[in-house]
Known about the structure:
By secondary structure, chain A is mainly α.
Amino acid sequence: xxxxxxxxxxxxxxxxxxxxxxxxxxxxxxxxxxxxxxxxxxxxxxxxxxxxxxxxxxxxxxxxxxxxxxxxxxxxxxxxxxxxxxxxxxxxxxxxxxxxxxxxxxxxxxxxxxxxxxxxxxxxxxxxxxxxxxxxxxxxxxxxxxxxxxxxxxxxxxxxxxxxxxxxxxxxxxxxxxxxxxxxxxxxxxxxxxxxxxxxxxxxxxxxxxxxxxxxxxxxxxxxxxxxxxxxxxxxxxxxxxxxxxxxxxxxxxxxxxxxxxxxxxxxxxxxxxxxxxxxxxxxxxxxxxxxxxxxxxxxxxxxxxxxxxxxxxxxxxxxxxxxxxxxxxxxxxxxxxxxxxxxxxxxxxxxxxxxxxxxxxxxxxxxxxxxxxxxxxxxxxxxxxxxxxxxxxxxxxxxxxxxxxxxxxxxxxxxxxxxxxxxxxxxxxxxxxxxxxxxxxxxxxxxxxxxxxxxxxxxxxxxxxxxxxxxxxxxxxxxxxxxxxxxxxxxxxxxxxxxxxxxxxxxxxxxxxxxxxxxxxxxxxxxxxxxxxxxxxxxxxxxxxx
Amino acid sequence: xxxxxxxxxxxxxxxxxxxxxxxxxxxxxxxxxxxxxxxxxxxxxxxxxxxxxxxxxxxxxxxxxxxxxxxxxxxxxxxxxxxxxxxxxxxxxxxxxxxxxxxxxxxxxxxxxxxxxxxxxxxxxxxxxxxxxxxxxxxxxxxxxxxxxxxxxxxxxxxxxxxxxxxxxxxxxxxxxxxxxxxxxxxxxxxxxxxxxxxxxxxxxxxxxxx
Lengths: 547, 211
């Protein structure tokens, strides 16, 4: 890190483990998160690769059924709780939120650092429990499997996830207060970049939904350890109540996982088509609408659980409603491209791939929201394909778009554009090859979570497993060329993409407290239709790049 | 940047507003936690109303009422501490906080007495302890007592958290500026009142069903 730094940047402010592990600079905390999340991502990915290798043949020849159950539990727990939920907010969001709104730091810098420690402690605690205790409940901890039948260290694992929830709430509170209290003069709500809007919407969901998850995990621990049978039918409890509580959190959590990705894409698309974002207010408001509607659709995970038919109809209707704000965004993004001067740099490629994959996955969501279709495809690979298109094709692709887009700001270095474009394309091909066959498999009736299957499913499974290898290469490539760029990459100028946004007005990498003088904003976001890119968009401050 | 704890703020006043706001957001989050637990209780209550009402009569109403009064009084002394801190009368503030803590501890002691009675009466279906409930529908009453212990102990944990924060805050005061002290009293006070209000909801739901 140290030799990547230039004098007077945040990377230069003290080196060595102490300066990093005890930092309160939001930019350094973002790096702590980035490094730990990258490790979790590849760990969770390795589990997926093992599963895909097992599924290349119909017989269970690589791992036993028990081990397979543990593999998908580990994959789900790591990827959902320890990668996707914190992914963009804790890394790019942490780094960029103060820069984008013209603040010196988040409102509570120490709380920000504490949230990382809580995250690391909770996640390693849970990971240890899952591995050592052989937890095989899947990431959802459904009762009564988790309370009455599972023998692994379910309580310990659930408690670890519970601890990580605190870190999520801390981040949420910090972001909400920062957006309310620390916007630069002139930066009104409707001049905020959409990325800030989506972080705000995400934070609201984090703060209001995570405690309900905490409650349901506490109740599992109480049932297993203290014998309070809230979910145990023998003791008058109701196992389905767990699903209601769990999805009351976990469906909004799906939006925690996708909203920040939508924000990243809303930054990248205007920049590389040199056009202002089409329908800014509609995009901003649809983010809030998604956050609100997200709380009202949990029952669509329970269409076949025996909940009342009336509830099923209402939840189905509300689930169709939540598609509207997402569709508003997709149309606005597409119209942003219209008549733009589009160039295909790496972040733009990732963003366009996001658009394709998110739309495709979202349309499959409408199938699942329809009661009759859901009965047929519930708990099949169709569902797996649907949410991987959103979570991986959507969120992880957006994460890569954002990582490449702001990489020069994070590090002060450029990466190899050719490698980036190749990696993006390989990812796109590998992704579709992995998950498109799973739609077919699911529709033909292959259930999820089995390590063996009838031979007639083998053709699509082999395609999917081959795709997983391509996808793995696509994700491993950035590890190498971005790692190389960190130490050897060409120096980045302060605004390599000629983008608008306050973060690009600072040097690359930014100085320790971001702004010498707090900037005054006089123009709307995405001011791209102005001719002449050297035009001064924000007055009066200017922090020139040192190099 | 002078006088503020976070580099992000220009003035202590703005930082205090941010702190208060953050505490409100946190309270919103906590309300969802307790909301979920209350919901679980109410769902069970809809299913097993008569059994819950009968089981509720085995809780000690006098002790519960006394504890409600204790907690509401502690909110009063906490409000007093806030007023005194605004006027920068620090030693009086510390006394008001000490009174608040004493009342909080009193609540916990009475709660402990209640728990020990319930355990010795065989009304605690926890950790394999004997459950000797004489009334109708013992299985449903068992769920009631399970929920009673879940809810009240979660509340008690929040109260203990409040006590620790008050003690830690006062212990660190010799090194903190008046602006920071006021900021902390306002935020901690909000939290304290919230924990009291939770009890104000919990008391009727658990103790006063069908009385």
